[in-house]
Write a structure and sequence with these properties.
alpha/beta; 41% helix; IolE/XylAMocC-like; Xyl_isomerase-like_TIM-brl; Xyl_isomerase-like_sf; TIM Barrel
């Protein structure tokens, strides 16, 4: 049964706060697990290196918070799973390998990832092939690090590669690795006209993670209560299919940047109210 312990707070909407502020707020709210977003200003990594993780590990211990999931920035930065330029593609591979190393060093078991994106005026098959080659290579590397890559779909304005449940099914089949598993992004599936039921009926217990946020008809990664989705129905579905993983709070709208902790506190309370009935 879903409980507040399934919540995984995320620092992606804390870009104007120090990382310690984020951990402190999660502790105060009562959130015990976080999906750490690997982006500036909280954690620096690139194709060549990444900063020491000592500070992150120390903060997690100080505030008694676990980090079961790590997700590197992969949309607003220059690194792209399906980069069309050969040199960019190679640099991106090095970047994501460093992200996998970070995941392992943090003791996390899951790393969030997506298919990347191609060019609108190129054959779709070319972008697909680059994504397939990259995900296959990274899955092999992740296996050696005892990390599972969680593949989410993106919205059509973000990618032209894996944006639907059928795309995800095809990519997972072609990569064919135990180290690459499906992840649900509730915004992406809503935009695609899909449901949690469809995803669980298709992938069952192989779903290893969820970006569990509210959204409107046209998208938006919103805090629960700010969109048009039915939280009670969503939790009922998760319980129906015995989902026991984490619910990452990938809240990306800039409206939350000033007081991100208020959104986190409200989401925690909403889910607590639904799960303690």
């Amino acid at each position: 049964m879903i409980k507040t312990d399934n919540l995984a707070g995320m620092n992606i909407h804390y870009p104007f706060y120090a990382l310690e502020d984020f951990f402190s707020y999660q502790n105060n709210i009562g959130i015990k697990n976080v999906e750490l977003w690997g982006g500036i200003p909280h954690l620096y990594l690139d194709a060549a290196s990444f900063e020491s993780l000592n500070k992150v590990i120390a903060l997690a211990r100080k505030y008694k918070i676990k980090i079961p999931v790590f997700t590197p920035e992969s949309i607003i930065y220059q690194y792209n799973i399906a980069a069309p330029n050969k040199e960019q593609w190679q640099k991106s591979k090095l970047y994501f390998k460093n992200a996998i190393r970070i995941t392992a060093e943090l003791g996390a078991k899951i790393m969030g990832i997506n298919s990347g994106f191609g060019l609108l005026n190129e054959p779709a098959s070319e972008a697909w092939q680059r994504s397939l080659e990259m995900l296959s290579s990274l899955s092999e590397f992740a296996a050696r690090q005892n990390v599972t890559l969680a593949l989410e779909t993106l919205r059509p304005e973000e990618s032209q590669i894996v944006t639907t449940i059928e795309d995800a099914k095809k990519m997972l089949h072609e990569v064919n690795s135990d180290s690459l598993k499906p992840m649900i992004d509730t915004t992406a599936i809503t935009v695609a006209g899909e449901t949690l039921e469809q995803w669980f009926n298709t992938f069952g217990t192989s779903i290893v993670h969820i970006h569990f946020v509210d959204c409107g008809k046209t998208g938006g990664h919103l805090a629960w209560g700010d969109g048009e989705q039915d939280l009670a129905a969503a939790i009922k579905t998760l319980n129906k299919y015995n989902y026991t993983g984490f619910l990452g709070q990938e809240i990306t709208a800039s409206r939350y940047y000033k007081k991100p902790f208020e959104a986190d506190k409200r989401v925690f309370q909403l889910i607590k109210n639904q799960t303690e009935k």
